Amino acid sequence: MTKTALITGATSGIGLATATLFAENNINLILCGRRTERLTAIQKDLLKYCKVHILTFDVRDKNAVKEQLAHLPNEFSQIDILINNAGNAHGLEPIQDGSTDDWDAMLDINVKGLLYVTKAVLPQMISRNSGHIINIGSTAGKEVYPNGNVYCASKHAVDAINQGMRLDLNGKGIKVAAINPGMVETEFSEVRFKGDTEKAGKVYQNFTPLQPEDIADIIYFAITRPPHVNIADLTVMCLDQASSTIVNKI
Ligand code: NDP
Ligand code: 8X3
């Protein structure tokens, strides 16, 4: 039977690459993000492969998350796969120079947003005794790097939540997995450096970073394992990265 996946943060980077690969493999999609124009264009592009429903909301808005996921059209109402991907870093400063607005954004989006979406989707998975949740963590969730402080804390929280979810949902037929990428060339650094594309570009210079399609491949591998196999926790880096520390210390 054709499956349906809900992907948060589907307007760019890892989320978009995953949406594209899922679509090409005939998985129906619910795609979420804040940028409606992009969602509409992506929907148009992927409709040739599968059914695509788009939802515009900010994952920080718990009421919007709850409302929108409670009123899905019938043909999208069963979510088999949830990819908790929406997230970003904001700033790269020593803790003493960090902005409280940046801290709020990272903790509210990367941690609380992931929880709100999961809370809205879990009841139906529990009632069916099946489902697959993939949480996009990071190497930054395994090891802290200089100036990464709060971003790393948010991804350490994702690591803990992933473990907690897997424990609490054990026995309910739901797979819970964390995929933890190292440096991936997406809009991530543009967001981190608040639109400074020159600075963002330098992050990925002089080495070959991961591409979003590399992570999409791994996510697709995880969701296509036999029913008894769960990829619980997987870390992936490019050849030139050996720890969570950013290769180019910007
Ligand atoms: P991108 O900036 O390319 O994509 C981020 C996505 O998250 C966008 O689709 C964006 O959509 C969405 N998003 C951000 N904030 C919100 C919000 N408040 N509400 C709803 N959606 C939001 O970055 P990546 O693809 O790299 O990032 C995806 C995930 O991968 C993140 O969780 C990131 O932490 C993680 N990651 C990234 C790595 C990297 O090196 N790039 C490495 C390890 C992990 P929109 O703006 O339309 O809302
Ligand atoms: C990790 C991305 O560039 O902060 O999520 O190491 S980076």
UniProtKB/TrEMBL annotation:
UniProt family annotation: Belongs to the short-chain dehydrogenases/reductases (SDR) family.
A single GO molecular function term of this UniProt record: oxidoreductase activity, acting on the CH-OH group of donors, NAD or NADP as acceptor
Species annotation: Patiriisocius marinistellae
Official protein name in the record: NAD(P)-dependent oxidoreductase
Superkingdom classification of source: Bacteria
Pfam family, one: adh_short
UniProt keyword terms in alphabetical order: Oxidoreductase
Source lineage: Bacteria, Pseudomonadati, Bacteroidota, Flavobacteriia, Flavobacteriales
InterPro entries: NAD(P)-bd_dom_sf, Sc_DH/Rdtase_CS, SDR_fam
